[in-house]
C-alpha cells in the first residue's frame, strides 16, 4: 500500500486481507478503524478511573483543551 497522501479515491475501496483468517477489509475501513478505535479506549479508561474514585481534572474534549492553540 502506498502512503495516504498519494492514494486515489478508487484506492480506498480496494479490499485487502487483514493477515489472519479469511478476514478482509477495504482500505477506507482500516483507516477509519485506526482513527476511531483509540476513542473507545479513552472512554473505557475514563470510565474506569471515575469508577475507582479518581477526579477528572482535565478537559476530555480536544477542541476545548489547550493542547494545541
Question: How would you explain this protein's 3D organization?
Answer:
The protein is mainly alpha-helical. It has one domain. Helix content is 36%, strand content 9%. The chain is built from 1 helix and 2 strands; from the N terminus they run ββα. It has a two-stranded antiparallel ribbon with strand order 1-2. A hairpin with a 6-residue loop joins strand 1 and strand 2. The longest helix is centred in the middle third of the chain and has 25 residues. It is elongated and about 45 Å long. It starts with 14 loop residues before the first strand and ends in an 18-residue tail after the last helix. The mean pLDDT is 83.
